[in-house]
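User: What would this chain look like folded?
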Amino acid sequence: MALTTFAAIDVGSYEISMKIFELAKKTQYREVNDVRYRIELGAESYSVGMLSMETVDKICEILEDFKRIMKEFGVTEYRACSTSVFRELKNPTVIAEQIFVRTGVHIDILSNAEQHFLGYKSIAAIESGFKKMIQKGTAILDVGGGSLQVSLFDKDALVLTQNLKMGSMRIRERLRELEKTTRHYDELIEQFIRNDLDTFQRLYLKDREIQNVILMGDFLTDTIFKNDLTDQIITRQEFMHRYEETVGKPETVLAREMDIDPEMASMIVPTMVIIRSFIGIFNAESLWAPGVSLMDGMTYDYAEKNKLIKSAHDFENDILVASRNIAKRYSSGKNHIQGTTALALAIFDGMKKVHGLGQRERLLLRIAVQLHDCGKYISISDVAECSYHIIMSTEIIGLSTAERHIIADVVRYNNTPFIFSRVFEGNLGVDQGRSLLIAKLAAILRLANAMDRSHYQKVKGLKAVLKDRELQVVVDSDEDISLELGLLSDKVKFFEDVFGIRLVLRRKRK
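Assistant: Here's the prediction, encoded as structure tokens.
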């Protein structure tokens, strides 16, 4: 059986780590090596927004060592990622380029939504436990160095994900001086994060019941609970017992007891306070700590995309559900969105030979349809611009920043004149390939949206058939659609200009 040896590298806030896996079709992947180097990148990133030359030198040394190890293990594919520690630099792309030139290792700077989607996939890799648990109200807590991500599930669907800037290292850096002046550091942290917790509870929990809590990452399982976990379950009582034993101890004592670096020990108390606070607002009785990390999610994602494994969970649906919940938050019309989605996808699927787009672009179109009206919540007269800013200000789990920008532009140009020269000259900060994708998706959205101009879903069905350079669109409707057809002329013109084909609209014969 052919094996693929894959390496996942995480350039994190407090360490640079690499896991090597062996992957084979139709079998579970196997971890064969785990290497970690302690380096406090977050201390510089979160405080001054820059990495010193000495720190960059050290990163390069570590990555060169990783390359040597990968060669020894016969690694054929790898992926290196960084998260908030690079995102919050003033010059992240410059640093990433310097590292690439010196080591040949390309570092993907993940958006927050991408990062936590991969983290969520690492838990989903444990399919039996995850699948069963998310049938009921479940929260995933991912406490990182720079931020905290909270994701809520119910009935096998992701219903909410929210990022809070209360990572363990960020809290430590902000309160480092104040810590010296208090006897109760844990109470100081509680006060520091209380407002964000209250806001989260008021806006997103309300009457939602959370029965299960999953702790993402391997920080706790490698430190506080290293010798205590047999079934990966921590009861509320066990957690509170360890909490009371831990929060009053100095970093030096924690470091000695846990056999860890004092700097890592300094993040124990902030992490414990964050988790205890969420256990309180969820009223959870137990926590599941599977001990997986971002690197496990990167590997699962690679194996899934290369058809080495088939997931029992529909991750694409999670992205769509998250988008649907955003639309719901801004009171978008449910029936109009459903009707327009069906029309847009029928057009997209009927002209695959012309647009040359794939399943990922189809997903972006679906999300654009769901969010194209969200700006009406702010202004009915300036829907396009308001929708654009809502989308750009809202994280959508599983999407990169570039993909979110594409969706926002598609929605903006649903109602705003699309000036080819302006877009293709790069004045929007996008390359020509992305500009053309925006034009294609906007042309389809305009056409589908116009066919439900009345929001009455008069068009019950649509069939798009491509013949030579002509797209024949057969519309099925028993109602008077003169309004919809009468307002299509400018949409048709733009559509034909973008795709270079003739569009012919016909009604289905009865």
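Confidence is low (pLDDT under 50) at residues 424-428. If you want, I can go into more detail on any region.
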